């Protein structure tokens, strides 16, 4: 599809949060032009879309999620992390099939589209089925393994790394482990050997709770980030999910190695895990991205809620209303997320970049008046303002409707059947 | 209008959060029937609405707001309360006309409709114009005076109390003062005399920041609630907005006098004011309602964000993922709000009650699967899920469209013109 968007306010996120008025053209999966009004009469278009002054911006990157956990939304709430995992989540997950993962990922994808998410960093049980669900629906997905002592072996991760990377333009695969507390030292050493063989970055849940951090120090005399680094696991980059209980030394490591901290404020709030010191991260020069975490601990997949929480919780933690500027938050939710996920071509709106674009509807009361559009998006925005979600040049969601190829009601019915089956004795 | 809603899941909020399947009938401004499927062939209907399994529930009560502050949304952010008020807000407010208040309240009303708010507890500059804006658009409004040393005199409050109460079925008026720190003792004593003359409840901003509380203790040797009570200001009920820095003694007072604490977590977060101890309030048996505060400090008017924050911030504060159950939150946002505002007939869905009803769309990905609908609403809900907002028997918002009588674009244009004029030198 070649599409001409005109009468747009464009937030390229290329270096600043300044808006320009103009046009954006897509040619197949790429952006062919971004700039002021330009004569387009020599071109033929599949569609010409009058943006009516609405904002075009890079889609949000959900830099940490477990999509297949949609089945367990509102199924087991109001429990702390460890109890929630061990008594409620793990027993159900043991019964989940590959087909369940496919169907439940599709439910999550519908929700991502409504909140303007154009790529996901997904760690869950059945990567092949997650990949297929994303390919079938058009979602860009960076899979990351959640290797641990209880799941598939290291060899499976290596095979997937080789097979899933390059299987489809929408899919890449990164190495990762679930967390320090679900891996023993031997396993992590073996992972490190693989990291060095492929010169690959590594991601893991990291310092999510006080207990996790304390127990790691007890076991190894080091915090989780320093322990991982001591094994060479960060020698080729990567980063951590959550990063709530970070010491100054942990932050220095992340800065020095160019690692990414992916913050998950909704989940950390709902599970009472704590507040990540995002303001301090920024002061130190750390790279921060944003994720929703899975829909069983959050419980929704809503980048607007996450963005407000990133800055809001920082303000509360620091007792400073100026903590973490909205411009920084928007950068985290777009550019930084793309870079954390290795998506160098899906970060900003510029000629030659991938057409992963959303339109924010300013013709809603919560976006008015137009004193400051970036602040409106971060402080007042909601899913309702997502007028269009385009991934890889394809419009998958527009004016509240999913692409014709998607049967939302059938997906809802399957999700209900799955949780009924999984939760039966 | 006489409307028959059928195929509904009904959350009456009458004593519990249980849902029933059935029908709800409205006759003019009242609910004529709520219950299981019933033969309706003897009646004639203006409309029969197939709810398709969606939820009918009482509309949300926004129990603390300053609607007219929409002009200042994203105009002055990232400042602490006192600096924000004195350097940014008060100078602009000094220039606002009655017509500005009318137009800006209309913008807020549009936003309330999108988030399922069916009545507002509004403290702002021009009550007559606020009332007229609400009447013209069909919003139920409890006005509350924000009496202070710098605005209209006590006599104006008394006149408004007598004139605005009963002027229209949608409008009531309550006595209130802005806050302890904007009133001297003499003024508060005069207010107390009026409270006793009319046996009226009183509301005020209360213990919103540490500074406010400390300075009150310094001035009078008492916290704001105890100081107000010492003057007899709570002899006929009422309560406080914000209530962040409450002592055990303050809580005991609120319990013993049946006062309402209206919590405003979005605003308290964005202004870095602090976290109200809601879990403790509930343990003590206090009555808690929820408000958005004004759109300049929040910055959006979104009861879903507030509901998540009420329980989420409590979980963080108490380091307990089970703190403040979602059922309690939903009660705060509906029944308790109505009671705080004196709206005894707009609290639950039952025969004879006012038809202030919203429909929550479950046919959205964030509401699936249906493991627990109440938890879905509180933990995952968003404005997007508000399929319909009915006030006083009139459908004012449905499927993303405002009633034909409302010209949203004209209201947006006016808001932009107003802030341009107010912020000019």
Describe the structure.
The structure is a homodimer of 425-residue chains. Chain A is an alpha/beta fold. The first copy, chain A, has two domains: 2-59 and 345-402, Roll (Urease, subunit C, domain 1), CATH 2.30.40.10; 60-340, Metal-dependent hydrolases (TIM Barrel, Alpha-Beta Barrel). Chain A contains 14 helices and 17 strands. Chain A has helices spanning 81-93, 98-114, 127-137, 154-164, 185-198, 210-220, 224-230, 248-257, 265-270, 278-284, 303-318, 326-340, 373-380, 408-423; strands at residues 2-11, 19-27, 30-35, 47-50, 55-58, 60-65, 117-122, 140-144, 171-179, 202-206, 238-242, 260-263, 287-290, 357-360, 386-391, 394-398, 401-402. In chain A, strands 1, 2, 3, 4, 5, 14, 15, 16 and 17 form a nine-stranded mixed beta sheet that branches. In chain A, strands 6-7-8-9-10-11-12-13 form an eight-stranded parallel beta sheet. In chain A, a hairpin with a 2-residue loop joins strand 16 (394-398) and strand 17. In chain A, helix 11 (303-318) packs across helix 12 (326-340) and helix 12 packs across helix 13 (373-380). The longest helix of chain A has 17 residues, at 98-114. Chain A is globular. The first copy, chain A, starts with a strand and ends with a helix. The model of chain A has no long low-confidence stretch (mean pLDDT 97). At the A-B interface, helix 2, helix 9, helix 11, helix 13 and helix 14 of A face helix 2, helix 9, helix 11, helix 13 and helix 14 of B.
């Amino acid at each position: 599809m070649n599409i001409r968007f005109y009468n747009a306010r464009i937030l390229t996120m290329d270096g600043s949060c300044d808006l320009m008025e103009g046009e954006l053209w897509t040619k197949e999966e790429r952006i062919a032009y971004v700039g002021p009004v330009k004569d387009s009469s020599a071109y033929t278009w599949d569609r010409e879309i009058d943006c009516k002054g609405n904002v075009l911006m890079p889609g949000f990157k959900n830099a940490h999620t477990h999509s297949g956990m949609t089945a367990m939304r509102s199924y087991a709430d109001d429990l702390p992390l460890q109890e929630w995992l061990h008594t409620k989540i793990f027993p159900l997950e043991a019964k989940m099939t590959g087909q369940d993962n496919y169907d439940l990922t599709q439910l999550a994808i519908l929700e991502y589209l409504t909140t303007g998410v154009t790529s996901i960093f997904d760690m869950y049980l059945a990567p092949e089925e997650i990949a297929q669900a994303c390919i079938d629906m058009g979602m860009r997905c960076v899979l990351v393994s959640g290797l641990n002592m209880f799941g598939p072996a290291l060899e499976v991760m290596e095979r997937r790394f080789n097979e899933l990377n390059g299987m489809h333009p929408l899919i890449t695969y990164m190495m990762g482990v679930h967390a320090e507390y679900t891996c023993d030292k031997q396993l992590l050493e073996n992972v490190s050997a693989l990291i060095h063989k492929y010169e690959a970055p590594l991601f893991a849940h990291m310092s999510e709770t006080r207990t996790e951090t304390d127990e790691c120090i007890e076991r190894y005399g080091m915090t989780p980030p320093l322990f991982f680094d001591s094994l060479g696991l960060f020698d080729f980059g990567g980063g951590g999910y959550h990063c709530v209980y970070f010491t100054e030394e942990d932050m220095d490591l992340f800065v020095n190695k160019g690692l990414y901290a992916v913050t998950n404020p909704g989940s950390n709030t709902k599970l009472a895990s704590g507040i990540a010191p995002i303001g301090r991260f920024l002061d130190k020069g750390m790279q921060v991205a944003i994720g929703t975490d899975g829909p069983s601990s959050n419980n929704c997949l809503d980048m607007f809620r996450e963005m407000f929480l990133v800055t809001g919780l920082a303000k509360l933690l620091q007792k400073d209303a100026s903590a973490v500027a909205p411009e920084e938050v928007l950068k985290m939710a777009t550019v930084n997320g793309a870079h954390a996920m290795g998506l160098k071509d899906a970060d900003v709106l510029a000629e030659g970049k991938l057409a992963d674009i959303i339109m924010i509807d300013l013709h809603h009361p919560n976006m008015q008046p137009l004193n400051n559009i970036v602040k409106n998006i971060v402080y007042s925005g909601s899913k309702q303002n997502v007028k269009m979600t385009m991934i890889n040049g394809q419009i998958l969601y527009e004016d509240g409707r999913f692409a014709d190829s998607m049967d939302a009601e059938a997906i809802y019915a399957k999700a209900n059947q799955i949780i009924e089956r999984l939760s039966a004795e």
